[in-house]
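REQUEST FORM: STRUCTURE PREDICTION
Request ID: SP-0412
Submitted by: Lab K.M.
Chain count: 1
Length (residues): 195
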Amino acid sequence: MESTKVTGRVPRTHRLPCPVRTPAGLPHQPAGLEQQAAQLNRLSKALNGLGTIFSGVAAGTIGDRFSLATLNVSASEFRYGDSAETAAEGAMRDLVAARGDAWSGQVYPLPCGQPAAVVTGARIYERPAVNPPTVPFHELQAIVPVPDDPANPQQALLNITFSTPAATDWDTYMPLVADLLRSLAFTTEAETDDQ
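STATUS: Completed
RESULT:
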C-alpha cells in the first residue's frame, strides 16, 4: 500500500485536475447539489491560499446516484506535551463534548506508530442561497499528533476531515478513509515535488 508522507515542512494544497460535473439524467440527484459542489470547489481553492496541505472535492456517481464528498488535510502547530496518546485522547474527548450527543469518538493506533483521535457525527450547514437551504453533512475528523522531530522542536497536530452530504454512501466511503489513515507515514526528510 502506498503511504502518505507528511514532512517537517507543510506542502501546499494539491489541485485535482478534474472539473466538477453533474451527470445528466440521474434519477436521485438532490436539488442544489451541483451548486454545493461548485461552492466546495471555491472553498478548496481558498484553503490552498491559507496553506492547507490537501483539500479536495469528489463529485460523481455511486450506483445511479450523484454523490459528493470532501477531504481536507491540515497541520497546525500545537504543543501537546510528552504523550501523543494523551493528546489524542484529549482531542477526541474535547471534540465529542463540543459537538454534542450526535457525535462519538475513539482513539485508534495507526501503523505509523501514532494514535489517531477519530470522531464522527452529523452537521447541518445553512446555505440560504442554495435549495434546499439546510444541508446535512456526515463527517469524520481525525486528529493525529505529528511525531517529535529533533530538527524541528515545534509540535503539531495533523487534522484530516472527510465529509459528505450523501449519507447513503457513507459505508462506501469509509474503507477509503480508513485506508488513508492507515497509510500515513511521517518522515523528517525534505520532500521534492516529484515524490
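NOTES: The two ends are 15 Å apart (CA to CA).
Reviewed by: T.R.
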